[in-house]
Every structure is written in structure tokens, then in C-alpha cells.
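QA checklist item 7 of 12: single-chain prediction sanity check.
[x] sequence parsed
[x] length recorded as 290
[x] structure emitted
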Amino acid sequence: MPRFELRPPARHIGQYMESGDWSDYWRTAISRASSGEILVRGYPIEEIIEHLTSTEAHWLLLQGELPTPAQAEIFDVLLRSGMDQQLISSAASATRFAASASRNPVSAVAAGMLATGVVTGSPRPAMEMLYSAAEGVSASMEGLSEAARNVVAEYRARRELIPGLGHPTHRGGIEPRAEAVRRAVTARGGWSLHCQLLEAVHAELEQALGRTVTVNLAGMIAAVYCDLDFDPLVAEGVSALEYGWALIAHAVEEIRDGVPLRIIPDALGTVYTGPPERHLPARQHPERSP
């Protein structure tokens, strides 16, 4: 994954301390704000507000350039793919617990955001895998099959799960959100190299295991984000932010209609696995001198 690989920083604090020149210590290519003017990626904010959709504006903010109509449509599909999953999500549960205590939607959503990550459906691991596996691979069946065999063999040799494949709830090969994303992206002409590579890896893993494996939503959107040329770090952040809408709904519902100060009683599955009751050994205290 050469393009998006995390490399040592080009600048470091030592060079500024040695030179004493701090003129470019803080710099950004995202926006500029001065008296009476705000530019985002070079475009006046007034034009963005008046003429762009939310999806187009967010693409511009993240990618630096305006999307094509097809790119905007596919990005919009991804932005609405990660809707709520009741309380299966650890992020939703963390939000509800925090909201029950704080009664503040902002801090509750922040708690839920902190409970997101690789285990909760980030597309980043699958994107890094697909970007790396696609290096120098042609879109031919032979090229995709060979790359897929290499991926599956590598992960199985390390006894690691292949990111983007498998789901604890949606078994039997069907994850409704992932399949809907596949249909929507294909209908918009966006099913390209990395999506095809994901299909090949999926087929290769099923053949190796001799059973059905589900492509999960994180894997599906990872492939689409790769075909849209997104940085995995950006996609990971967007996915967490997108699910933040559900966290807002959970936080407000908990505050309005929930039980203040949620607990997990024994009746709901709390199990103590420590030692039985015991007592500290008697201690002999040294006599104090007068």
C-alpha cells in the first residue's frame, strides 16, 4: 500500500527548534479564513452553501476536489449504509450508558465514538489489505484469482481472520446492508478493481474453508472506498462519523425515555468469576515506643 502507507514524518520539532524559523509550523491545505472571507479547498464558502449538496461538500472537504456525479452518488450510498443495529453495536451501548448518567447528548455521543474501532466495523483493515493486494494486479480473472490466493494463503498461514469477511449475526452469506451497497454501487457503474478483488478473495476463502462466508459491511464499503481512491484513515473517520447519527438518536432516546444511571444486574448476565469471600490475614502490629 505505498500511496497511503504511514511513513516517518517529513517534518519534526527538532528542525524548527534548531532553525528558529516557525513560519510554516502550522499549515493546512483545507481552508483559509480571514476577515470577510472563508475558502474551503479554494472555493468560497458562500458558493458551497448555495450550490453543493451535503455529500458533494463533504467529498470536497475530504478529497480536495469536487466529485463527479457518479462519485457523489456512490459516496452518498456509503454515507447512508451504516444505519443503526439496535443495541448490538458496542458504540450504541456505550452511548446509552453515558447518556443515562450524563444526560448530555454531546458527551454521550463522544463516549460512543470512543467505543468504535477495528472490531466494531472499521473499513480500514480491509482497505489496507485490498490496496496492498491490488498493487500491480490486472483486472483479468487470472490476475484477480492469483492475488486472492495469495491473500487467503497469507492470512491462513498467520492464523488471522481476513478483514471484511465473516459476521457473528448475519450468517449464510447474506448481510443485508452489504448486499444493498453492492447492488447500488453496481447500478451506478462503480464496481471496479478493488470490489472485484474482494469478490475473488471471498470466493477463494469459501473454497479453502468448504463453507459459506459472509461479506460484511466493513468489507463491502472498504472495497468501494478503495475504488473511490480514499485514504483508509479518511474512510475510518467517515464511517465512525456516519454512525454518529445513530448515536445521536440513541443518546436522545435514552435521555428522554431511558432509565437514569443504567446498570448491568445479575439477571441480565453479570457473572462474578473471582474467588469466594475471603479475609485478610491477621497482622501483628509492632509495639509503639512511648
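[x] summary fact logged: The radius of gyration is 25 Å.
[ ] second reviewer sign-off
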